[in-house]
Amino acid sequence: MKTIAYPVAAIAAFVLAFSGCASSKTPTSKGKTSAPDGSAKAAIRAGTYNIRLSGGADAGTPNAWELRKDDLVALVKKQKLDVFGMQEVCPDQAQFLREKLPEFGFVGEHRNADRVSGEASPVVYRKDRFDVEKSGTFWLSETPDVPGVKGWGAACPRVCSYAVLRDRRTGRRFCFANTHTDHVSAEAREKGMLLVIERMKDFGKGCPIVFTGDHNCRETAAPAKAVSKILANAMLVTETPPKGPWRTFNGWHWREKEHAAVEALKFPPDVRNSSAAKKSDKDSAERPEVNFGSRIDYIYVSKGVRVLDYATVGDSRPGQKLYPSDHFPVVATVVIP
Description:
The chain has 337 residues and is an alpha+beta fold. The protein contains eight helices and 14 strands. The strands form three sheets. A six-stranded mixed sheet has the order 5-6-4-3-14-13.
């Protein structure tokens, strides 16, 4: 297969595309314009949640889908989301979620060649608030429009699903994209992310972007750095301090007390993203003897999108030292320009 090239000029063109969007300023009674603010009318609750696939190694354990699915739906409802991305959604889970969340529409195909089996990474949106102008799914591979292909040594096929949405409250439009990059191949993670970046130019023809997903990498890794050149990590630009734990991947490992994101952010990226505790004579307040945990789930926004608040939701299942998924949901309130 022919490898796709992503020149710097292409990324630069994308930057110009979304930074040059038409202004959403609205006319006043005197014919002048006033910029929209972060009012309740314009605010959108966005999020991302890897719900952990059904079956597999969890079957017959306390983390089995059948035992946690109602708690997971309750947690989703508690967040009062307007639009969000999910990952690892198997067909049986998709059917259950559609039944339990009838107020939401789902956009996205499953990752296998038949488009209906395997995991999906859907965009989930409130049907009473948004109209879908355009949507699609492509595969993170050298042949992105061919379903079911594993790209660049990935362990399994990977997809990105997106929707161009128009907000009925404000008339503003934006693109919401969601993906789950590979957990094995570093090359697949990086090139898959570069493919998403390249495709973003055409998603909404210059409209604002919210990009979510389980990217299976920390903020110091190449894929995250590539995205951060053109989009902002919502956690780093929120107008209020981020809430909740630092880690987003819990791996089913219970913690009585989490390391808070707001505390982790006081340390340099290489320290807060270290995968091993540092124990040496050089340890200090700047290099703590702590593993903050794995933060691999993201919300990114394009230039001009305000992030009013941001949280990682570390809630456990009621009355148990168990979680609804092996990832925590990440949520933010954003305002589209």
